[in-house]
Amino acid sequence: MKKRNLILSIFTPLLLVTVGCNSDYLETEPTQFITQEQLGEAASTNPDILRGTVTGIYTLMFEEGTGGTTGHNDFGQKGVDIWTDMLSGDMALSQNTYNWYRNFVDYQSTVDFTRNENYVPWRYYYRIIRSTNIVIKALGGDDAVPELAENRWLLGQAKALRAYAYFYLTQLYTREYEPTREILPIYTDPEQQAQPKSTTEQVYALIESDLTDAIDFMADFTRTAKNQIDADVAKGLLAYTYASRGNNEDAYLLTEEIINSGSFSITTTSELTGGFNDVNTPSWMWGVNLTPDQGLDLISWWGQMDYFTYSYQTAGDRKSIDRALWDAIPAGDVRKTQFTAGTGYRPVNKFYHPARVVNGQRIIETDYIYMRIDEMYLLNAETAAKTGREDEARDRLVELLSNRVPSTAYIASLTGLNLQDEIYKQTRIELWGEGKSYLAMKRNQATINRGSNHLFQAGVAVPYNDPRLKFSIPQAEILYNPFISDQN
């Protein structure tokens, strides 16, 4: 890769857009050529136009610039996943050349509301929210139950996507679950103007209501592509929501349902080192098939993470597994081979373009993963242990690890906090680089101790609820929403 193609400024100028007061704030392409009224009229008899609108919302999840900037770290959900993996401490910036993550990993960006890192997720998720509100309103609003089955499925997907966006906002912009704390503005209508913050309890009530409706509406829905949310994915999102606020009982029951459905199989030994690049992998619950027609290039998750893609991973912004976490993986565990010491503990055997030519993939054709069944096994084990079902927790852990480690015999003796700690460690190992370690860090109220291969803040103990581990409400929102005057 030619260095001149990657020399970029540390900061992209912050794009100040009107938040709340101006309906343009969350304007999104799927509806720019049709009015809300036209959508509503069309929806009652012909779902085709709304189907296209929902497809456009899914596209926002992976397109570059969906957070409102031209930054090379602004590319939807997987861009957020890199940030959260870094905040969890499990992903180390072990070499820095181009500065896209330098200030972030040094805990400077999250506490400074003028930084783009705070603006990008805020705009991205509220853009999803406004787009889903357009669909929900066209289908009759929050209390509607459409007569046409396809409209019911579309409403279910829209509600699940809105809940997904609000869930991530609660995780990123709050330190911990505090029911009465005012945290985020709620928008449930695309025509709403600026709103004040609602309480944590109110935001969670909307998330849980949306996901419960989505599960009901999509009970008979068979999706045509894995980028679409179906009832199982909605259950997974709801299980994460329950667990994040300490409702481990309901999270346990939901993950049991997903696992026992038999719709997905545990990732095999060969798939664990197979590149994580194919949405058709049987363990993948939710992901997207990326093709060259979509035109993704350097500004993408693969462009930041893959040694075998024309990328920052080869050019000087090295993302590696935390050395202490790698050391904690026992010899003989197949997941230890996902990383190699010779490449600075980069994930060269976990995520890669199939051709395995260094800098080989330029236009992205490898797929994105959002959720897999292995997460549900780990969350099931975690919530089982936290609700006193230790036998069930051990059994689930054994099921998952039986094709990963030489022996699972040690699990039989684990109880209490030792069992919970082991499940948390296995979650960090299993899901490294997939954007789930941050959620687990918060659920388990962990303290971050970065290993020796972090360029910044190595060895500094940071508890899960430290202000440095959350994003700040961005300057744009504070400037243009008269009801919000602080970063927290």
TrEMBL record:
SUPFAM superfamilies, per the entry: TPR-like (SSF48452)
RagB/SusD domain location: 329-446
Signal peptide per UniProt: 1-23
Localization per Swiss-Prot or TrEMBL: Cell outer membrane
PROSITE patterns in UniProt: PROKAR_LIPOPROTEIN (PS51257)
Keywords, comma-separated and alphabetical: Cell outer membrane, Membrane, Signal
Domain of life, per lineage: Bacteria
Main location class: membrane
Domain named SusD-like N-terminal: residues: 89-222
InterPro entries assigned: SusD-like_N (IPR033985), SusD_RagB_dom (IPR012944), TPR-like_helical_dom_sf (IPR011990)
Family the entry assigns: Belongs to the SusD family.
Name under which the protein is recorded: SusD-like starch-binding protein associating with outer membrane
